[in-house]
């Protein structure tokens, strides 16, 4: 059995770690490229959202490298992601790929079925071993996501351009060649030490921008025109509202015991959206409100073309923008590879934020005298 | 010799150049068609400008904007390279300091810019759809066999309203043909088109935005009085078309260049002579990863001055050509 899985940011490191711990062989799909997207677009339904196309491309490229089992999380949530695995299964079958697709979910709350699926890929039935592997992998992913978050905030301040990128690139390379949590954690802690040593030149007036929106587009830089890096290059600190490790603890841990760690986010969005409408629409609004309360300069929403939940929140965001006095820019992402249009908007948006910051500063100066 | 600033706006349809003096008076402007050849358009424009004012002015700074701003910036040695939204906003503020709304309709895109207290407060931009842009009008004028310059005045002669669907360029065209076959007047149809375009703009870009006076209308399409009147009817307020409406992007680039040069104290302008240089673009496909980026190499008189087009920065960060110059 050779297991593969879709890319989403650096999540593949966490998944690889999990299966390393369980002693199961994995095939990491090649880095998302134009070719991945081309394959995905060729075989996916024309009007489906971008993540389905990219992940389908991932599967096919992995199958070419010998993978025979695809593991993916399921979701009965009211967004098209719930149908992804079923649609992709059929497409792969039509293409003549003989692979098994294991969807990690409990259909209609059917726990024995869920366990059956877990056992199919886990190489063991020992629940303790599974739990321990999961815990270790979650830790690796958490630390890795922490590095990424730090990088998005510190990179605009680096003295020598490219220092952070170099450390991070090397880290991912090392992790892909490591086996198991122990080795991976040593690498990650090493990278943390490196990052502390990177010389910084603090820009006191750096803008702060939050990225909200559909989870895949927020996390996967190949699907968001690498917005984090673009903003960093313009001297802007970036905060992403989603990370894979948070999603994991929220879904696997909190929700299963009937709790949520996102009480605050939900409450913040209540005045605008009273109920869950699927996807992360409510979180998008909640995060925008909270970011404005934390004094952020702006919020950028990213969403794939035709994403229903995010279209709903996009139409509500102008009101949030007015009530909380925080400019919001929505970027709709599709197969387009030309980035000029996005750059123009982002540049103009950052100019707008800078001017607002300046005029606020002037007001303060005036009121002091 | 008068101390002046040069602004270049390289758009999809037109390339505009403006020359502004130190007191922010516009000395001369130029509006030429890009015709898909930005390098040639910039060269022709600079040559023309040099012939007109070159002997009387000393260029203190140069700014570029528009979708071809990076290319133009490298060609002329720009001090400020800015997106067209900021450039248009800066230019409008210079003429109407209390402006609150800018309607800008160009060849390939249209924008709405909202300003409050002298700063850009919100904006929206449409590029995916041709309905509501200058190219659409251009094409319809061609269909009707009317020069685009006369389009607006013809619309004003309309006596009876003809409603044309403006949601989509394809629908609008078939709707228009249908109305023609029904025997409607040409003036009425043209007026219908102008109204359809203004309606589409407001429904699309203006959605959820608070459009308040003073409203400025700029961009190439602002020269069309029919569209301006249609906007006035729909918005119920007067719309101001500034004197240099069709080259406002270039004017904004002048202002931004002036600001930037004041900050850094010198200009990187390479001189009008570059219009005589030979420019060559060579591209190749990078085979380093499956992205297969199309990398563009830009040569001035056979020396490499810039590379772009790669995702990872492997090529555009390579500074070897700078070293070449030093050596």
Structure overview:
The complex is a heterodimer of chains A (about 375) and B (about 325). Chain A has about 375 residues and is an alpha/beta fold. In chain A, about 55% of the residues lie in helices and about 10% in strands. Chain A has 15 helices and eight strands. Chain A has a four-stranded parallel β-sheet, with helices on both faces. In chain A, helix 4 (about 80-95) links the parallel strand 3 and strand 4 (about 100-105). With about 325 residues, chain B is α/β, with parallel strands linked by helices. Chain B has three domains: about 1-90 and about 250-275, ATPase, nucleotide binding domain (Nucleotidyltransferase, domain 5); about 95-240, 2-Layer Sandwich (Nucleotidyltransferase, domain 5); about 280-325, no CATH class. Chain B contains ten helices and 13 strands. Classes of the chains: A alpha/beta (about 375), B alpha/beta (about 325). Chains A and B meet through helix 2, helix 14 and helix 15 of A and helix 3 and strand 8 of B.
Outline the secondary-structure elements.
The complex is a heterodimer of chains A (369) and B (327).
Chain A: E1 2-4, H1 11-22, E2 25-26, H2 34-43, H3 50-64, E3 69-73, H4 81-94, E4 100-104, H5 111-122, H6 127-154, H7 163-176, H8 181-197, E5 207-213, H9 215-219, H10 227-233, E6 236-240, H11 244-254, H12 263-269, H13 281-293, E7 298-304, H14 308-324, E8 328-333, H15 340-368
Parallel strand pairs in A: 1-2, 1-3, 3-4, 5-6, 5-7, 7-8
Chain B: E1 2-10, E2 14-21, E3 26-33, H1 38-53, E4 57-65, H2 69-76, E5 80-81, H3 84-95, E6 101-105, E7 110-116, E8 119-126, H4 134-144, H5 148-156, H6 169-181, H7 186-204, E9 215-218, H8 225-235, E10 239-240, H9 248-264, E11 279-285, E12 294-300, E13 303-308, H10 320-326
Parallel strand pairs in B: 1-4, 4-5, 6-9, 9-10
Antiparallel strand pairs in B: 1-2, 2-3, 6-7, 7-8, 11-12, 12-13
Helix pairs in contact in B: 3-9, 5-7, 5-8, 6-7, 7-8
